[in-house]
Amino acid sequence: MSEKQDYYQVLGVSRQVDASELKRAYRKLALELHPDRNPDDRESEARFKEASEAYQVLSDPEKRALYDRYGHEGPRGGGFGGGFSNVGDIFSAFSDIFGDLFGGGFGGSPSRGAGRGADIESQVQLTLAEVATGAPKEVKVQRRAACQDCEGSGAAPGTSREACAQCRGRGQVVHAQGFLMISTTCPACRGEGSVARRPCPSCSGSGLRVVEETLQVNVPQGVEDGSTLRLAGRGEGAPGGGRAGNLYVHIRVADDARFERDGADLHTEIAISFPQAALGTTVKAPSLDGEVDVTLAPGTQPGATVVLRGKGLPHLQERGRGDLIVHLRLVVPVSLSREQEESLRAFAAAGGEKVEPPSERRGIFGRRRKN
Ligand SMILES: [Zn+2]
Ligand SMILES: [Zn+2]
Questions:
Q1: Within a domain: residue 190?
Q2: What is the whole-number distance in angstroms between the Cα of residue 157 and the centre of ligand 2?
Q3: Do 12 and 136 belong together in one domain?
Q4: Which ligand is nearest to the CA of 171?
Q5: 158: Cβ–Cβ under 8 A, 6 or more apart, which residues?
C-alpha cells in the first residue's frame, strides 16, 4: 500500500479546523465520492474510505489530539483502528451524516429497495431562436434501469427473492468486538435483506441493466445559458426497484453574432450614415422574428438607441417578452464619389464650416506618391 496521506489533507482542511467545519468538509467529500454516485469506480471508493477514516479520527477529540502529536505511526495498535474495509461500515458509523445527506436510505435501513438510484447528467445546446420559442430537444442518456426480464427483482423469471438467511432479512449483522456490539451491512445480501436464490441471467441478479435511451426534453422558452433542468426519476434505477435518481440536463445557448443577451432583452447594433441620422429614415434591423423596421427621427445622434418593445426573448415562467434594443452606430464613409464629395463640400460651405480644400489635399498626396 502506498504511504498514508495526512488526514487533514485528505479532507482538504487546515489543522485548526473546528468540528462543524470538519463535518462540512467530510459531508461534501462523501457526497462527491459516494459509491452510489460512482458505481464500479475503485478509486472513488478508496478515496471515500480514506476520507471516512480521516473523519473518524479527526472528529474524535481524543484521537485527533493523538494524531496531532504522533501522526499515523504513533498510536497505531493503541488507537485508530486502521480504517474501513467495507463501505457499509461507513454508513453505520456515520449514520448521523448519511441519514440527512441521502434521505435516510443508506446504512441501517434493512428494507430492500430503500436506496435511491444515482443522478446522471447530460447537456443540450439551443439557438437563441429556440430559446424564443421553447423547443423539444432530444437527450441521449446511458443509464442503469430496472431489468425488464425480472422487473428489477434480480431473481430469475418465475422465481422470487427469499429472505436472507444470514441476517434473517434485517440487512444488518451484529458482531461483538470487545465490549462493543457493532452492526454492519450483511455481506450475504449487501444489506438488502433478501437474496435471489436463482439470479436473473439477464442482469446477473443485480436487477439493473444498462440501457441507452433518447429522451424528449421540453426546454421552456426564455431559458438562460448555464441553467439546469431536473427530470425527476430519469436517472439511474436503484437496486431492488427503489426510487430512481434524477437526470440533470445542462442548457447551453449558442452565441449569436447578431445579438447580445441580457436576460430577456436583446441588444443589436446597426450602422447608419450621417444623412440618414440627420434627415431621419427607416432602416432594417435583425430580430429573432426576421428583419424589422427601425424608424430614425431626424437629428438622431451617434450611439442613440431605439427600443423595440416585446421584440426580445420571452420571460422565463412569466408572461410577455423582453425588448430588442437597437444601437445606432454612425459610420463615416472612407471614400466618396466625386458627386458625393461635391455635395458634401456644398453642405459644409452652407454651414460656414472650414474643410480641407480639394486641390491642395490631392496635391500633397500626389507629390508624396511621386517621390
Ligand atoms: Zn434481471
Ligand atoms: Zn443478509
A1: no
A2: 22
A3: no
A4: 2
A5: none
- Set of cell numbers at residue 45: 471508493
Q: How confident is the model at residue 24 (pLDDT cuts 50, 70, 90)?
A: confident
**Structural domain containing residue 317:** 260-330
Our CA dihedral for 32, 37, 42, 47, rounded to 10 degrees, sits at 20
Alpha carbon of 209 to ligand 1 centroid (Å) = 7
pLDDT tens-digit series, residues 66-97? 888 888 765 454 446 556 666 666 666 665 55
Q: Look at the block and give the residue holding cell 441471467.
A: 201
* Residue 174 falls in which region: left (phi positive, over 0), alpha (psi -120 to 50) or beta: beta
Q: Give a yes or no: residue 159 inside a domain.
A: no
Least confident of 12-26, 189-203, 357-371: 357-371
Say how many domains are in the chain.
Answer: 4
Are 208 and 240 members of one domain?
Answer: yes
260: β partners: 267
Instruction: Check whether residue 60 and residue 21 sit in a common domain.
Output: yes
Mean pLDDT, range 289-314, rounded to an integer: 95
Residue 205 has pLDDT above 90, yes or no: no
Whose CA is closest to 102, among 2, 30, 182? 30
Interval between CA 32 and ligand 2 midpoint (Å): 27
Q: What does the alpha-carbon distance between residue 105 and residue 238 come to, in Å, rounded to a whole number?
A: 11
